[in-house]
Write a structure and sequence with these properties.
The protein is mainly beta and 114 residues long. The chain has no helices and 10 strands. A 5-stranded mixed β-barrel has the order 1-3-2-4-5. This is DUF2190 family protein.
Length: 114
């Protein structure tokens, strides 16, 4: 039997988009009501789409995103944004990231619950 977590507790916010926002990339707050690309540390969610000057940002629920470096540990863990708009495991001594549940991680992509 296959499983599905798509749609679980999914929530979105619409915010103004800084230059460089693109679908699928990690997002961070850059100023009041505005998001931009997140290339390191803590992220608020992932950009689901950009239309004109606005970005739709997924802040909770299940999402599949690329990871860099070692595959993230399965289960409840803290991950950070990477320089490519995806995610990465925290390095030794790092603390800036976001707690997520990693459901699967293989072939360069991880399914996480924000």
């Amino acid at each position: 039997m296959d499983i599905s977590i798509q749609g679980y507790d999914t929530k979105f916010v619409t915010m103004r988009a800084d230059e460089g926002c693109k679908k699928g990339s990690a997002a961070t707050i850059t100023q009041n009501g505005t998001v931009g690309p997140c290339t390191s540390g803590a992220f608020i969610g992932f950009i689901a789409g950009v239309v004109g000057d606005y970005a739709l940002v997924q802040t909770s629920g299940a999402v599949s995103v690329p990871y860099s470096g070692t595959a993230p540990a399965l289960g409840y863990t803290t991950l950070k944004a990477d320089a490519n708009g995806g995610i990465a495991a925290l390095g030794e001594g790092e603390s800036a990231g976001r707690a997520v549940t990693v459901v699967s991680a293989e072939n360069g992509a991880a399914t996480i619950i924000l």
